[in-house]
């Protein structure tokens, strides 16, 4: 019987990845479609991808699939063959990362209630009634109109390091909070042209459906999100309206779209847009840190955490034992740490 989950220590897996010499491609894809038996679908997919050393994070639910993966370049054709053998996914667009790098070191395929946690419980809501796709050229043309409203459907820490010109931030911690907040913020503008965008397309596609559900009439969403847009403007020689870095939910924590640095170090205020996790594993706070502060603070978010690193490893292990860190994110507007236990709210798209 095939092993349907990883049994190797995470540290060892990461070390193996670092020692790999063969190039890998970072790919993301999603599709909303009905999966009647998510568990069987998950198991079959895990076996197929494990055979060709695909790493990454994939969510499967009755509403579809959401994936961010790392594929050995030599197995890319084999990966497509396996994926496209699934009738509903045949010919599906695959978003290639702007900057591939070493993004994942283990394959995790999980069954979830939804591929994007949205907090919507009304059975009359339908993802099939969604907004109109816009490609990169159409997005640029429509946003030339000052009356067009551009809405960023990512979290505050994603928006902070990079976003489209004149995009509205929905200052929330999770996607489920964003949906009603976006509709409330735009109340009275139901007849305006509204464009939603996100990282890879999955969140803004659902957001466009939600806005139509809430009574908005001219709703659009950027096809393939920021990733597909960045690749298209480069390939087609179009004007790039995105500024800064695109946050991603893997080991890279970001891929540079333009050279502009629009964020600041959370410790000293200098221009910086590098996200990192606090070196104190009992904290693991996600925050922006410049090179100087990374050196002076030893990769930590605070002096308290620096002090923890001076303790013997056994004491450090005891401090973090039983701690549920969830998603710890520094929110500069609130000057405090925030915690959300449901990681599927934010994971790429």
Layout of SSEs?
Elements: H1 10-19, E1 24-32, H2 38-50, E2 55-61, E3 64-72, H3 76-84, E4 95-96, E5 107-111, E6 132-134, H4 136-143, E7 149-152, H5 156-161, E8 162-164, E9 168-169, H6 175-185, E10 193-197, H7 202-213, E11 218-222, H8 225-236, E12 242-246, E13 255-256, E14 275-277, E15 286-288, H9 291-296, H10 303-309, H11 313-320, E16 327-331, E17 336-340
Parallel strand pairs: 2-5, 6-11, 7-9, 7-10, 10-11
Antiparallel strand pairs: 1-3, 1-4, 2-3, 8-12, 12-13, 14-15, 16-17
Description:
This protein is of the alpha/beta class and 349 residues long. The chain folds into 3 domains: 10-111, Alpha-Beta Plaits; 132-244, Oxidized Rhodanese, domain 1; 263-345, no CATH class. The protein contains 11 helices and 17 strands. The strands form 5 sheets. A 5-stranded mixed sheet has the order 4-1-3-2-5. Strands 6-11-10-7-9 form a 5-stranded parallel sheet. It has a 3-stranded antiparallel sheet with strand order 8-12-13. α6 (175-185) packs across α7 (202-213). It is globular, with a radius of gyration of 21 Å. The two termini are 34 Å apart. The model is unreliable at 333-346 (pLDDT under 50).
């Amino acid at each position: 019987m095939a092993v349907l989950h990883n049994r190797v220590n995470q540290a060892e897996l990461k070390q193996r990845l670092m020692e790999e010499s063969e190039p890998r491609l970072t790919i993301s894809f999603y599709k909303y479609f009905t999966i009647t038996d998510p568990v069987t679908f998950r198991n079959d997919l895990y076996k197929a991808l494990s055979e060709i050393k695909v790493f990454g994070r994939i969510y499967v639910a009755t509403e579809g699939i959401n994936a961010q993966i790392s594929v050995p370049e030599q197995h890319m054709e084999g990966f497509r063959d396996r994926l496209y053998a699934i009738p509903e996914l045949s010919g599906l667009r695959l978003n290639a990362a702007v900057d591939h790098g070493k993004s994942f070191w283990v394959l995790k395929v999980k069954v979830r209630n939804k591929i994007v946690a949205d907090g919507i419980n009304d059975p009359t809501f339908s993802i099939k009634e969604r907004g109109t796709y816009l490609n990169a050229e159409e997005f640029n043309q429509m946003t030339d109109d000052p009356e067009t409203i551009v809405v960023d459907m990512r979290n505050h820490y994603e928006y902070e390091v990079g976003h489209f010109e004149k995009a509205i931030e929905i200052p929330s911690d999770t996607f489920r909070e964003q949906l009603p907040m976006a509709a409330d913020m735009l109340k009275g503008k139901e007849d305006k042209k509204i464009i939603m965008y996100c990282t890879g397309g999955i969140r803004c596609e659902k957001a466009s459906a939600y806005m139509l559900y809430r009574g908005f009439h001219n709703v659009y969403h950027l096809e393939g999100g920021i990733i597909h847009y960045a690749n298209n403007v480069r390939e087609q020689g179009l004007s790039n309206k995105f500024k800064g870095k695109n946050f991603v939910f893997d080991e890279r924590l970001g891929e540079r779209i333009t050279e502009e640095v629009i964020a600041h170090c959370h410790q000293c205020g200098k221009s910086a847009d590098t996200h990192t996790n606090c070196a104190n594993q009992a904290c693991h706070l996600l925050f922006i840190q410049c090179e100087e502060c990374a050196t002076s603070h030893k990769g930590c978010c605070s002096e308290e955490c620096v002090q923890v690193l001076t303790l013997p490893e056994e004491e450090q292990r005891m401090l973090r034992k039983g701690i549920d860190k969830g998603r710890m994110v520094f929110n500069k507007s609130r000057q405090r740490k925030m915690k959300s236990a449901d990681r599927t709210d934010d994971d790429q798209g």
